[in-house]
Design brief:
The protein folds into three domains: about 40-60 and about 345-415, Beta Barrel (conserved putative lor/sdh protein from methanococcus maripaludis s2 fold); about 60-65 and about 265-340, Efflux pump adaptor protein, beta barrel domain (Elongation Factor Tu (Ef-tu), domain 3), CATH 2.40.30.170; about 110-230. It has about 425 residues and is an alpha+beta fold. It is built from four helices and 22 strands.
Length: about 425
């Protein structure tokens, strides 16, 4: 007898297939919901630079370029204008103080001096003539006073005799009165002459003093003019090397025109041009250093020129100790100029990453070193070697400091050896 076989609804193969599909679906959903969705880029580790974040001393400084100059320079400016008549010393020659350098000729100045000399002679002659005339006038007045005194003396005796005779009624009253009137008249006249003599003496002294002062001024003016004549011979103001341009014979030099300079070569200084951004942070007394002939030399900011030209200002720096042997005027040196005191900080090496990120983020390696992930950071001060890390990194961590230009906006770098 045949028995009916019932068909199974869930055979094992079907159950296994459905279970596999369900598991695959669950994995997909999990990856979508909870998986790592960050963008990744495979990078060969040899093609990037990995640096370690460190904690250590930090010195903020900036690189600047300086030019070596003599420690002291005296410029030669023409005190007087004229035509170059003689050149005694050529540019580049060592000179001693007082050595003549060039001779100028100025015909107008010669004529002016001759004219002033004539004025002095004329004024001196006028003073002599005036003194003679005033002395003659004083002698005349003295003679007049003497004559007048003699007349008064005679009238006084006559007046006294006639007074006695009048008392004895031996002469008339009219004779006595005439004598008295004549005597009193001559006395008054003498008093007037004496007052006039005194006044004339005062006036004569004032007149002489004025003429003497005028002569003195003319003589002083003549001395100045003669010194101007001496200034036509330009001399070395100090001992050193004559550098820069010296006019040629026959060339006309204007008053105040610079014709050269004398450099003192027993010392040097360095003049550095610095970006105007640092103007408020540079002051007298700050240090800098540069390398020369395998040695490091320290400089000290001696003078800051606050005038900004083409976005830069200048600083003169002197050597803290001896200057390098063999250094020459005009040489260029690369200076590390300190901007602050030495302090401890978290540091990360400089690199091309800064151009891409602006110091706002960096790729940080995980503990295994197999990948590097973006992380926000905040940088502070800097120098040509390192950045100061304010936030986001800890000492001992490793970061990618080479250029990020080829990474785009990738979130994670997968490092391949």
């Amino acid at each position: 007898m045949d028995r009916k076989i019932e068909k199974k609804k869930w055979p094992p193969k079907k159950i296994a297939s459905l279970a596999g599909m369900a598991l695959f679906f669950i994995i997909i959903v999990y990856n979508i919901s909870f998986g790592d969705r960050s963008s990744k880029l495979n990078v060969e580790q040899q093609k990037i630079t990995i640096s370690q974040v460190k904690h250590g001393p930090f010195q903020e400084f900036i690189p600047v370029t300086g030019s070596v100059l003599p420690i002291k320079t005296i410029f030669l400016d023409a005190t007087e204008g004229g035509r170059v008549d003689t050149v005694y010393i050529e540019a580049g020659t060592f000179v001693n103080q007082g050595d003549p350098i060039l001779q100028l000729r100025n015909t107008n100045l010669h004529i002016q001096i001759l004219s002033q000399d004539a004025l002095v002679v004329e004024q001196r002659n006028l003073l002599t003539s005036t003194r003679f005339s005033l002395e003659l006038n004083r002698n005349t007045l003295r003679q007049r006073l003497i004559d007048q005194a003699y007349q008064i003396q005679r009238l006084k005796r006559l007046y006294d005799r006639r007074g006695k005779l009048f008392e004895q009624s031996l002469i008339s009253e009219e004779q006595f009165e005439d004598t008295k009137d004549e005597y009193e008249y001559q006395v008054k006249r003498q008093n007037l002459n004496i007052a006039s003599y005194k006044q004339d003496s005062v006036f004569q002294r004032v007149q002489i003093r004025q003429l003497e002062n005028s002569l003195l001024r003319l003589e002083q003016s003549l001395k100045i003019a003669r010194r101007r004549l001496d200034d036509l011979t330009m001399k070395a103001p100090i001992t050193g090397q004559l550098t820069s341009m010296v006019p040629e014979i026959g060339q006309t030099v204007a008053q105040g025109q610079r014709v050269g300079q004398v450099d003192v070569l027993d010392g040097f200084k360095v003049r550095a041009g610095i970006d105007e951004h640092y103007l408020a942070r540079i002051d007298k007394g700050q240090f800098g250093e540069f390398d020369f002939a395998n040695k490091t030399y320290r400089l000290l900011a001696d003078r800051v020129y606050p005038e900004v030209r083409d976005g830069r200002f200048e600083v003169d720096m002197t050597f803290e100790a001896d200057f390098p042997e063999g250094i020459r005027r005009g040489q260029t040196v690369h200076i590390r100029l300190e901007l602050g005191d030495l302090s401890d900080a978290v540091l990360v090496s400089r690199g091309g990453f800064y151009q891409k990120t602006g110091g706002q983020w960096i790729y940080v390696l995980d503990a295994s070193g197999s990948f590097a992930e973006r992380r926000k950071i905040r940088l502070g001060r800097q120098n040509p070697q390192v950045f100061e890390v304010l936030e986001g990194l800890e000492p001992g961590e490793s970061v990618v400091t080479s250029s990020y230009d080829s990474f785009g906006d990738i979130d994670k770098l997968v490092l391949k050896k």
